Every structure is written in structure tokens, then in C-alpha cells.
Amino acid sequence: MPVQSKEDPLMVLYNYYTTLFRSQIKRTPRSVRLAATAALVISILSSSYGGYKWWQERSKEKAQGQRLVRRNSGLRGKGGERIIYVPKGNTTSKVIIHPTRPTTFDAHRRLFLTPPRVTRIGSGASTPAYGHGPPPQTKPGLNLAFLHQFLSLLNIMIPRFRSKETALLLSHGVFLVLRTYLSLVVARLDGAIVRDLVAGQGKSFMLGILRWLSVGTLASYTNAMIKFLQSKISIAFRTRLTRYIHDLYLNSNLNYYKLTNLDGGVGQGADQFITQDLTLFCTSAASLYSSLGKPLVDIFVFNYQLYRSLGPLALTGLLSNYFATATLLRRLSPPFGKLKAVEGKKEGDFRGLHARLIANAEEIAFYGGADVEKVYLNRSFRELRSWMEGIYNVKVRYNMLEDFILKYSWSAFGYIITSIPVYLPAWAGLNYLLESSVSAAAGTNISESSRERSHMKDFITNKRLMLSLADAGGRMMYSIKDLSELAGYTSRVYQLISTLHRVHANAYGQTHRRHSGRIELYSMADVQGTVYAGFDGVRLEDVPIVAPALYPYGGDELIESLSFVVHSGEHLLISGSNGVGKSAIARIVAGLWPVFRGLVSRPRNTGQDGIMFIPQRPYLSVGTLRDQVIYPHTEIDMREHERRDSELERILEEAKLGHLLAREGGWDTRKEWKDVLSGGEKQRMAFARLFYHEPRYAFLDEGTSAVSSDVEGLLYERCKDRGITLLTLSTRASLRKYHKSNLILGLGDEGYDWELVKIGTDAEKFSLDKEINELREKLAMVPEWEKRKKAIDEELSHVQVMDEEGSGSGSGSVELEKPDYAVREEEEGQQGQGQE
């Protein structure tokens, strides 16, 4: 029987192709070799010239990138992509951001809103309120729901086969297979080095050490590349998901507002989901490829090698051991997915309280509410700490069992398996039988010591393989816990994206009818109004003003039905007391709140030649002074509209903010503007934005409350000069002179909710006269009120204070005479009892 070759197959391939290459060179004629050399020289020169041109282009791009970073700007590509430059050391890095197509959202909607029934996501009568997508009652775990959620997210992380993520995964897979091969080489070298050491063969021993070091160098590089590629995969996954979520979260549908204020499917906000949960999910998903792929390859390869060395009995024992261990750990494993999901929610609640404290620090400081806020924070942290301590207690017991089984039990079982060729040679593997047949053919030429050294080499090799196999199997078993934690992270990210899809598609009505059939009045499933974008003006027809509640609850009606029309030049003042619905009208027209009934007509565009809304609290963005004036435009939009800095300077002068340019250091100055500008400057900056965008219509919600009256008049006149029709929401009567009509809200006592009057007409003057007469009647009643006050003071002055010495208890007591109305009530009560 022939002896099996022990030569490394890679060295065989290398020697074969080296010999073939040399033979081909010798056969090549001299003229062909000279032509090849000349072609090589020409290619080197041309590549050098190309490198020089590339260096010039790179220098230009570097200068352009630094200029755009300084101006907080970028470039816009032909396909709608945005090119930005981010600082990177002393230079800049170019980043191309491709927007997500609407067709992609439409294609993914079925994955997140209509999951298969077999997954049991969002099904059942117990969760009618959430319908599409995973409700909070969905238990994260290793089930079909987790598989559907993970594959749905995988469609976003790897959108197509020819993508960067696919190349990273393939590269990662190549290094994982290479590490498995190097593990086999190390196992064989380990056995050979021990054999040569025992035999006293110094030369072979030193050659083995050199081979060990060379293989170790390659193995170290392989391990470093595996970790590096795993990190790159995690970043690539996070980039895809973050940009997808941002495109779905920040768009013209105002999903970022509706997600928190109307839907409520993600609790206090999406920041915890996008920042922390998404990062943990991507890290866990990237490590899953390594923690499952590499051990799986190792198990197949090492099992095959051990089958050749130890025989079918050993393979059967190993497979039985895997199955028994996996079954035992699966049954005894705690629900790590659910525990991690709840921990993420509690982390989000604790973080939300801190964010709320930062956002409202000034108001809390004025009230002196530090102690109350500390109670809330401590309570939330106490709940988080208790939950995490419970998780750690569960992990301690599970880790004890896991370590005992995977380390010590498997080690003992490995020693038993490796002893099969010694104690049961008939059940040994193919390699052992081949060596035995060679020894038998050689007869007595092989000494007993050589046979022992051969046994020792085989034992060391098999032991190394068993250790590597145990490590691979241990990682497979440990990955059960990692998979459970991944299920928790997957559930959180899937919940965020499914809720965003529900808000984006407004998929409330059909969802609610499918699961419950009953819809609350003025809930998000009861939206029946119409919005017409394209009207030259602002019109409301029979629109109820309703403050919506979080889905699925019904909202509160503020005004039963409101109707008015504003055309160009018809400035409207909307007045009324606090809480009657002034700001609600602006929210409904802007699309923040739904139109439950009736028709709302408004211009199509937001900004130039459209409509613009100035909120009650001025908002200042992050960026340069230029960005504050042109917001929500960017510097790219400003260049596309051919606007110049000189025009912005004139706008600041008109808004009485011309001093800012010199005071703050120029247009490219970056500061925390909400802390730099005063209250009046913030409101005047809002008017500067109006002057820049020049909309046809503008809603001003208390836009001049911190501005002096003279500047207020100038700002209103500037708006009118630019052709801006104003709809002002305010309680200040001094603003009436800048408007033509007045919509008065909160007139419920008169039998109706609102009244629209023309300013300066006879009806409006009659209304003012009526109000003046009411005030005069109240002033005429002042003497009677003073007389009544004097009578009350006299009644309260009849106080009898008992002397402290005469009191038995040593304490004084105070008795007040009963007022007249109390005496009369007692007399009437006694008369009523007498009649009965």
C-alpha cells in the first residue's frame, strides 16, 4: 500500500508554478523580452505622469474641501447625491451621501408593516393598538419573528450583491478560512516539533521553530485583519442603517415631529434607538458572522481531520456531544433577548430624563426644582440598576454551567477521544491504519522508540486539533447567548423602523380596523380631512381644531368648526386667550397636526413664493452666522439660488441686526448661537429669515414679544413692503394696526367659538364700544365692591381671643363669629326640618 504524502499542498502548488514560469522565460526569444521590457518602462513613465496629474487634482480637491468645511458647505451631484468634506487630521475626507429613493421605502414597507402571519408579529387581539410592526408585547428571542426582523434589516444593510458590504464580507470570509488552514498547519508543526525534541534531532527541531515563527507571523496578520474587517463591517452596517433611518426620519412628511408627538410607538424619542441601540445591533451583527462562520468552518475541517486520525467512533462521539450540549444550554439559557430589550428601554428612559433636564435647565433653575428632578433621575436610575443587577445574577448561574460544560467536561471528553488509537486500535482512523500498514511492511526496521515518537506526534497533533475544535464548539455554544442578545437589539431597531414606516405611510386606519374594528373619535385612525397644496392663500373650511393625542387615543376638541380665507395682502390677526387654539391653527396648516375633518388649502412650497412659519420659540441651528440667516437653506442652496453675502448683509440691516457681522467676526464664525444672541435678537433673526426667503404668506406666533414697539413696527412694514401676507398669532392689541382682519377665538360664552371681524369697520367699532361699555359698567360697581369689602373686614374683625391664663391647656384659642349668610343658612335649614 502506498504511503500518504505529508508535504504541504500549498508548497507543492508554489514549486509547480515557479518551475513553469522559469521554463517559459527560457523559451521566450530575446526580441520578445526586449519588447516586454520597453513596454514596462513606458507603462512606468505613463503611470508616473498620471500620478503627477492625480497629485495636482488631489491638491485642488484638498483646497476645495478645506474651503467648504470652513463655510459648512458641500456640493450637490447630478443624481441628487450630496458631497461633503469632513475634517481628517490636517486634511479633509470626501464623503458622498446618496439619498434613499422613495421606491425603496415602498418596497420595504411590506417587510415592516405586513410581516408574515407565521412570525406572529403584530397579530392577535391583545395588541390592537399597534397593528403593523412589532408591539411591545412581542417577546424578543430565537424564533421566527427574530429571523424575519433580522432578514428585513439585512435588506437595508446589504442592498445588493455588488456592494461594499458584500466585498467586506467576502474578504472577511477569506481570512476566516485562512485562519482555519493556519490552525491545521500549527497543529502539525506542534506535533513535529515535540517529536524532534524527544528524538533529539536538533537540526529538524530548529527548522521546526523557524517554520513556527513564519507561520505565527502570517497568523498574527490574519487575526488582526479579521478584527479590522469585523470593525469595518460594523461601521458599514451602521452607515447604511443610519442614513436609511435619517432619510425616513427627516423628510418633508415631518416624521421626526409625528414620531414623538403623534405616534408614541418608540416612547420618549428616537435618540436612544438611533445612537445606542443601533450601534449595539451593528456590532453584534458584524461579530455574528465571525462567531458563527469561523467556528462552523473549524468544526467541519477539524472533524474531518479527526475522523481520519481517530476514526468513525470518535466522530460519532463528537457529534453526539455537540447535540447534547446545544440542547442542554438551549433549554437552560435565560431569555437574554428580552432582558436586553428591556434594558435598552430603561437606558433610553434614563437618558431621556437627562436630555429633558438639559433642555429645560433655565426653567427648572427659576423654579428651584433641582430636588424634584433629582428624585426623578434617582428613581429611573434605581430601576435601571435593579434590572441590570438581575441580569448579572442570571448570567452568573448560567456562566458557571456554561464554563463547566464547555471547558472541563469537553476537555475530559477530548482526552477520552484522543485515546482511541492507543486503547482501541481497531477503531482508529485512516491515517493510523496507513502508518500501521507501513510499519508492518517495514518489519523490524522500525524500533519501539520510533513507534512511541510517532504515537506522541499523533497525540500532540490530535490534542491540538481537539483544543481548536473545543474552542470552535465553545464559541458556537457561547453564540447562543450572543444570538439572544442580538435578538433584543434587532427587536429595538426593527420597532423604530416599522414605526417610522407607519408614520410615513399614515397606515393607521386600515391597521386599526383590521385588529379591533372600533376607532376612537379624533384618533390618528380617524383622520378624514383633506389638505390641498397649491392654493394661492390660506383657507380652512369646516375644520375642527383638535389637539391630537398619542395613537390610538382620541384628541381634545378646541374649536368645533373653523372656516376662513386669507388671500394675498389680507393680513390676519388671530387673537384670544391662552389655550383657545391659536398655535393649533398654525400647526394644522403646517401639517404638524392632522386634519380630522374639512378642507385645508395652502401654498405648495415652503419658503420662497410659498408659506413660512415662525414658531413661538426662536430656533438657532448649529453652524455659521450665515447659516442662521438662510435657515433652512444650506450654503449649497444659497449658491444654487445665486444669492450673495452682500445681500445677506442688507437683510441684517433691515432686521436691525447689522451689528452682528462685526461683533461676531464674519459670516464663517461658528458659535453656540442660542447662547450668544439675546431674546430680541433671536426674534429679529427670524424676521431676517423671512426677508431672505420672501414667502407670500407667513405665520408669526408671538414673533415680536421680546422686541420694542418701534422696531416691531419697522419689521412689520418691511414684511409688507416685500409682499409678505402676515397671519399673526398674538394676544397683544397693539398689533391690530398692522392687520386688516381679526380672528377672535375663545368666545364660548357667547354661544360660538370664534368670530372674524374686519378691523376699522363699523361692526368692529361697535364691538369695541360694547367692550368699553362693559368695562364702564364694571368700574361703576367699584363703590359697591368696596362697601362689601368693608363689611367683610368688619365681620373678620369680631375675633375673641381667650386669655392664656384662663385656658386649662395653657394655649390660646380663637373663636370667629359666624357671618350673616351662615346664620341665614342655618335658620332656613331649621325651618325645613320643622316643615318635615
From TrEMBL:
<keyword id="KW-0813">Transport</keyword>
<keyword id="KW-1133">Transmembrane helix</keyword>
<dbReference type="Pfam" id="PF06472">
    <property type="entry name" value="ABC_membrane_2"/>
</dbReference>
<dbReference type="Pfam" id="PF00005">
    <property type="entry name" value="ABC_tran"/>
</dbReference>
<dbReference type="GO" id="GO:0005324">
    <property type="term" value="F:long-chain fatty acid transmembrane transporter activity"/>
</dbReference>
<feature type="domain" description="ABC transporter">
    <location>
        <begin position="538"/>
        <end position="772"/>
    </location>
</feature>
<dbReference type="InterPro" id="IPR003439">
    <property type="entry name" value="ABC_transporter-like_ATP-bd"/>
</dbReference>
<feature type="region of interest" description="Disordered">
    <location>
        <begin position="798"/>
        <end position="836"/>
    </location>
</feature>
<dbReference type="GO" id="GO:0007031">
    <property type="term" value="P:peroxisome organization"/>
</dbReference>
<dbReference type="InterPro" id="IPR011527">
    <property type="entry name" value="ABC1_TM_dom"/>
</dbReference>
<keyword id="KW-0067">ATP-binding</keyword>
<dbReference type="GO" id="GO:0005778">
    <property type="term" value="C:peroxisomal membrane"/>
</dbReference>
<dbReference type="InterPro" id="IPR017871">
    <property type="entry name" value="ABC_transporter-like_CS"/>
</dbReference>
<feature type="domain" description="ABC transmembrane type-1">
    <location>
        <begin position="174"/>
        <end position="405"/>
    </location>
</feature>
<dbReference type="GO" id="GO:0006635">
    <property type="term" value="P:fatty acid beta-oxidation"/>
</dbReference>
<protein>
    <submittedName>
        <fullName>ATP-binding cassette long-chain fatty acid transporter pxa1</fullName>
    </submittedName>
</protein>
<dbReference type="InterPro" id="IPR027417">
    <property type="entry name" value="P-loop_NTPase"/>
</dbReference>
<keyword id="KW-0547">Nucleotide-binding</keyword>
<dbReference type="GO" id="GO:0005524">
    <property type="term" value="F:ATP binding"/>
</dbReference>
<comment type="similarity">
    <text>Belongs to the ABC transporter superfamily. ABCD family. Peroxisomal fatty acyl CoA transporter (TC 3.A.1.203) subfamily.</text>
</comment>
<dbReference type="GO" id="GO:0016887">
    <property type="term" value="F:ATP hydrolysis activity"/>
</dbReference>
<dbReference type="GO" id="GO:0015910">
    <property type="term" value="P:long-chain fatty acid import into peroxisome"/>
</dbReference>
<feature type="compositionally biased region" description="Basic and acidic residues">
    <location>
        <begin position="815"/>
        <end position="824"/>
    </location>
</feature>
<dbReference type="InterPro" id="IPR003593">
    <property type="entry name" value="AAA+_ATPase"/>
</dbReference>
<dbReference type="InterPro" id="IPR050835">
    <property type="entry name" value="ABC_transporter_sub-D"/>
</dbReference>
<dbReference type="GO" id="GO:0140359">
    <property type="term" value="F:ABC-type transporter activity"/>
</dbReference>
<dbReference type="GO" id="GO:0042760">
    <property type="term" value="P:very long-chain fatty acid catabolic process"/>
</dbReference>
<keyword id="KW-0472">Membrane</keyword>
<keyword id="KW-0812">Transmembrane</keyword>
